[in-house]
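go over this chain:
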Amino acid sequence: MASFSYTVDTAPMAEEMRSVSRHVDGTTTAVVAMQAAVIEAEASAADHICANVNRGFYSLIRSQISQKIARLQSEVDSQLTQLKAQSLAVLAIRSRMERDYHMIGARYLKLFNSLNKNLKSRVTELDRPAIELAQNNVAKLNNRYRYMTATVAVNQLESVSCSQRIISANVRKRGEAAILSLQRFIADMNEQERLTKQVLIKNQPFWTAGHIYLPVAVFETKFAENTLVDLDIAVPSGDFQKATASALKNAAYSSAGLNWMPEATGSELKSQFSRLVESSNAPKRIRETMIRLFEGQKGGAL
């Protein structure tokens, strides 16, 4: 069998393998660098993503908390405004109730005072002598020792003169009071006489010719709402003949312009009438009826 022996030069292949080995080492270094860069990039991206996620999460939570705070603040403000409005309403109701209470209390107080006054006047009218005795005379009898000077049954000689001087002083005081009372009475009589002389017509006897002034009352009556007003004149009663009374009525009828009192005089008359009604001892129902009739009259006719 034939054998062949060849000698192959492996130097180029070894050189190429050496070159390949260098390239592989470069590739390995590049891969390692790339891997390190990738790992660093992944770490940086992860950190960036985590930071963004954390920032977004905190922003979201903060936004939600801010929204809840705003919503709750608006609810608190609305509730506070409602409470303030309700507080003002309650205070207004309280003030109105206080005014109503005082008004009702004053009304009932006036009513009960009127009832007490009416009952007092009725009870007084039932037995006026006994009440006047209890109100006037009993007090005077009880206070009699204050106005009268008593003398002791047994006195020493030194105290007799003092008692006599006290009695004489009391008598002088009572005499002075009586003189002053008489003086006031006489002065009132003189004043009344002076006023009477001013009112009366001087030097005008009735049997002489002249003018005599007599008062007449002119009043209107109306029996129904749609009826006409009936005018009537009343003359004073006295020793007059029928012709004289007729002449008076005719003169009053024929007098020009039977005008009623002016507005100012009517208001003054109304004020005086109201004052007299309020100061009277009549029951409240009678006073109210009097005022209603006075206010219901037409044209000032009484």
Observations:
- The chain has a mean pLDDT of 78.
